[in-house]
Amino acid sequence: MTGLGAVFRPQLPPERLRAVARLADAVGLEELWLWEDCFLEGGVSTAAAALAWTERVRVGIGLLPVPLRNVAVTAMEAASLERMFPGRATLTVGHGVQDWMGQVGARAASPLTLLGEHLDALRALLRGERLSVGGRYVKLTDVALDWPPAQPVPVLAGATGPRTLHLSGARADGTLLTAATSPDGVRRARRIVDEARAEAGRGGAHRIVVYLLAATGPDAASRLRAELAAEGLAAAHGVGVAGDAGTVAEAVRRLAGAGADTVVLQPTGDEPDPEGFVRFVAEEVRPLVPQAPHRTPLTW
């Protein structure tokens, strides 16, 4: 059974979010995902607004770059979202784009060490623990949340390379994969994650979420080709899809068959009708994809 969502891309101005989020709620979209890309829109601010404007749609932040964030602040914001909107926010943290991190003076010498320390501390704080940590990057002295969430909040890690995928399996609750991930890439990611979880002695589910670049409409194929070329993915096999609902649903099913729990359809940056894209995902693609059962905040 496969979860399905759509991305509100930050190439759209922030004032467009309200209409898109309300439409997503109205048409029954399961998940609306937001990005914190430099230097476009903030992830937590847009997620909080989208959650406040809606009643049921789940909102994912994919992702918060850990070099920009003190882990205590990340925990405070995640706990606040969970207490105000229980079970509706999905938090993802990751390395961030290293060139962007360099632009703001936050580039870490060891991104993997930073992400691991951030994940460990963040998940512990969201469990209500009191921490004193003296890591290479994360340093806390007697820190605990005064308003921890009623239940632990699952934290995903954004990952591409094998070392980060292994880290995510060992220390995160789920993994977010980019739109450059083919079905074979999902299989590799799932294998690495599962191996890391076994090595770490971790049980339970580990959610794999993957973006799928998608375009529909008369000019869908040309828009998809242009975006793939701009991203250096023109020769990539099994990446992106253009066509009608049946064609897009088949691409979703391929990713699900490879091990994805949730597929989030990512419109092209020049999508002419963001509201129409959300309606397309919810009303045309969703009926063609086996639907995931309702998930609790702890297990999705």
From TrEMBL:
GO molecular function (one): oxidoreductase activity, acting on paired donors, with incorporation or reduction of molecular oxygen
Gene3D superfamilies xrefs: Luciferase-like domain
Keyword terms: Oxidoreductase
Pfam assignment, any one: Bac_luciferase
Domain of life, per lineage: Bacteria
Domain Luciferase-like positions: 13-225
SUPFAM superfamilies on file: Bacterial luciferase-like
PANTHER family the UniProt entry points to: 5,10-METHYLENETETRAHYDROMETHANOPTERIN REDUCTASE, PTHR43244
Protein name according to UniProt: Oxidoreductase
